[in-house]
Amino acid sequence: MIDSSQLSQSRDPETVRAMFGSIARRYDLANHLLSCGCDFLWRRRAAEIVASWGSNRIMDLATGTGDLALALGRALPKSEIIGTDFSEEMLEIAKAKGVQRVIMADALALPFADRSFDCVTIAFGLRNIIDWSAALREMNRVLSINGHLLVMEFSLPAVPILRSIYRSYLHRVLPILGAFLTGKKTAYDYLGESIEKFPGGTAMLRLIEANQFRDAAAEAVTGGIVTIYTATKRL
What we know:
Number of domains: 1
Strand order of the largest sheet: 3-2-1-4-5-7-6
CATH architecture: 3-Layer(aba) Sandwich
């Protein structure tokens, strides 16, 4: 089992909050360009999975500028979707883009009662939380009986040649491009480091199931640079 506390120094909450606040205005543009538009496909696939569950009340945790919450809204127009994040700057953009309900919240102390949601999603956010296990347990707490979890995160491709190419892009190219687009090279140095440290594949499945979930499964997309993890709340 990976002990997230050993890897948490670079994920100090105030440091992460300030970092995301500083790039909020250019965040969407950078995401679209640096992923070559693949981020649209990733969110669409995540929304398809959630739609197949037919969830009525969904929390998109670490919603950022709200792109996944909006994709969920398009896939499930009759469902209630709440976007939460700890960055005021990000939430302001999400609200301006049309996310109907946004709440500023700490992922480790969510301001919701037990069993408040049918589904919790978190895209590219768990990696940035100081305690992964505590965050998963808090997500579990606010889920209803048999509620669903979807975690979408960056990962390293399993195929060696793809992994090598991706790592070169991640550590050499992406920080330079990110600095050009946002003026904040350190944010993109952090991105590469955090992806390297984050558990992937079977390690992530074990982490999810160790924190009160069952039937954890993984779906690799775009050659494995992103993985979508799903699970159900354990009774």
